[in-house]
Structure formats: C-alpha cells, structure tokens
Amino acid sequence: MIANIKQRLVLLLSLVCLLAGGTLSVQARQSLLTNYTPNGASFKYETAINFQKQNFKAVLDLSTCDDSKANENILSIGDDLQGANGWGGVNVIHLFYTKNNSQLELDCFDPGSRTHYEILKNISGELTVELKSDGLYVNGVQRCDASAVSNILAMSSILYGSTQGNTRSWATYKEISLEDVKGGSTGETGGGGTGTAERKFDASWIQNQQKVGDYKEDAHATFIPYASVEAMKSDAAFNEPWLTPQNAETQLLNGEWKFKFVPGTMSGPGESEFFAADYDDSAWDNIPVPLSWEMAGYGTPVYTNVGYPFQNNPPNANVGYTYYGVEVWQDGKLVGGLYGVTIGRAFFGESMFSLVPNASKLALIYLADFMREHGGSLIDCQFETPHLKSMGGRYISYKEYMDIISRD
Question: What per-residue confidence (pLDDT) applies to 274?
C-alpha cells in the first residue's frame, strides 16, 4: 500500500550531496615525520590514534643503517618503548635490523609474554611497516594478527621511536604517518591513503553478523541547530535536554496533515501531481501526525513480529493472532523446532533452531503437512536462505503475496 502525504509547508531539511560516479572521497594521511635521520641517537614521539579509523604507517630507507652494527632498533611502537636494558613485560612492538646479513627481527610483547617472534630474511632498501586494526604488516604482508598486538590496538595514543637495546637507529625515516582507513568510519580494515573508495554492496554482508554498516557516519547525539551560541545557551533545553527546544532552528512536523490513501502499488497520483505547488488536495482527508494510518481505518494492518496483537476494534482488544510452535524431540531431549504466528490461514515464521542435524527441517515438514491438512495457504519464511531454499522456499512478488493474504 502507498500513502501520499502532502503538507502545505516547504521545509529545507538537509543539504543534498551528489556522489558523482558512485564514489566517496576519503581523507588523506596525516604526516608525523618526514625525511628524518636520527644518526644513531635515541628518539621517541607520541601520537593520538584510533585504530578503528586509522593505520600507523612507517616507510624507512634501510640503506643508511650501519653495516657494522647488529640488531639496530629501527622502530618500536607501544606504550613503553623501553631503554637499553628493558626487554618485554610491557605492550610494545620492537623491530631490529642487521644490515650485514639483511635480517629483520620482529618481537611483539604484552605484559605477560612475547606474543610474536619472527626473523625476516633478505630485507634491504625500503621497508614499510603498518599497524592496522587487524594486525602488523611488513612490506604489505601480514606478519601477526590483531590478537598478538590487541592491547596496543586498544590504545588511544601510542609511542614510537628507537630507545631499546644497545644500538639506536641509523635508518632514514622517509615518512611516518597516520592514514585513514579506506571508506572513513566503515569498520573495514586495511587500505588507507588517498583516492576514492567505491560504494559497492556485497551480498555476503547479509549473513555477516559482524557487518553492521558501511559508509556510515560516526554515532552522535541528535544535531539541533541554533542561529548562534547565545541562542543555544539561552534555551531551557540547553541545561535540561529532555525539554523541547524553544529557540532551535527547527520545524516540528507534528500537526494536521493532508492525506490520501491509495490501495495497492499500481495506482495513485504521480510525483509531478502531488508535488506540484498548485495541486488541489481539498478532496484529501485530514489526519493527525504522528499516526499509524492503519489505526485510523486505512488499509490492512501489516503483520510485524512486535505489533498489531489485536484487531482494529477500539476500544476493545480482540484476539487477532495465535502463536504456534513445532518441537522436535529425540531420546527425551528437545533437539529442534520452530515457532511463529498465524493470522487467518497464513503462518508467519519467527524463528527455527536445530541442536542436531536436520531437526528444524523435520519441524518445517511437519508444519507444511499440518497446514496442507487444515487448509493453510502460506508459510511466510521472511528470507530466502540456502536452508529454506533446499526445502522448496522461494521468493514471491509483493502483489502475489497480498493476493494470497487477501483471500484469507
């Protein structure tokens, strides 16, 4: 069903941003050090970082290292970089380079243990070290995952530099930088740098319970605009935010609206008609807003898993649906089943589970037989999954769906 709502008030609600070519620009990196050569001296710096949004990246030129020295501490990252005699017992990553045999030693520590140790061979020239939300990378290859450096990744600021061991760094730090994770605050890991990130939908997101958003802004309190700081502070809601703002540059949309209900999806006025400034809506009904129009007698109440537990017969709450469940038992134990709601001759599935293979399939087979024997017309599974598809589930159009429901 479609409702066309029109109010005789034109509001400028937001600035519309057009993303040309379906791309979204991302922020460039923040440079911390460039072309820095410590010449064997200790150095240590601190930077704020959010590893969910930023990567730490260091690009080093190892050709300036001292080939007479072993185990140059070319880089350490953590909350304590330690001194000449310190070793482990803190949250830190140490990298040591020996130029005369082109070997790089990698050590990761937390307060309780060394979480990662590795010797990389044939390392020379330019070296790139990246610390991302999913682990530590050397020259683009992941050397340890996030579990080995989880304490560091949880920090809001880190130290970086060269202070550990007997030999300080002679490397040239071409650049140390913070790079935004590609796509902004998307929850994705890896990537970064300049350029653009394509906005592409991946069907696998539907089944990934860890994927809660993409290209989303950070969570924030509701923005309430004011003409000035003085106007904001003079509003009673400034100190008592549960009150309705009085001085805000907002327009409350509650009130009397013009309303036209159009049953079905294939008829009704087009956009050019009811958007027109001179459109005659005098024949439309008036309704109060906010309102669920079904409760005002328009259309048919739509089934949801949390609403409409009664027929629309105010003030009386008559029973409108019945819960049903199918249980599967094996050797005296509940091993699977399903449950849902019936309205008329249709069953609307809520959930199904299996503690042993195929238990929920048996429940669904039983339900289908039961529905067939008692004149049932539809089992609404909500989603097509490989499990339900193997049982004969299929998508149907909205029109076919409503045709079946309306016959009950």
Answer: 62
> For the residues 258-265, what does the mean pLDDT come to?
77
Provide the percentage of residues in the chain whose pLDDT is more than 70: 77
Residue at 16: amino acid letter:
V
Q: Which residues pair with 313 in a beta bridge?
A: 316
128 against 207, higher pLDDT: 128
Entry pTM: 0.42
> Over the Cα atoms of the chain, what is R_g?
32
Cβ neighbourhood burial of 1 (10 Å; 0-12, 13-18, 19+): middle
Cα angle, residue 336 at apex, residues 334 and 341 outer, rounded to 5°: 110
Report phi then psi at 195, rounded to 5. Answer: 105, -155
What is the per-residue burial (b if ≥16 Cβ within 10 Å, else e) of 241-267?
A: eeeebebbeeeeeeeebbbbbeeeeee
Pairing of strands 346-354, 378-380: parallel
Cα dihedral sign for 292, 297, 302, 306? Answer: positive
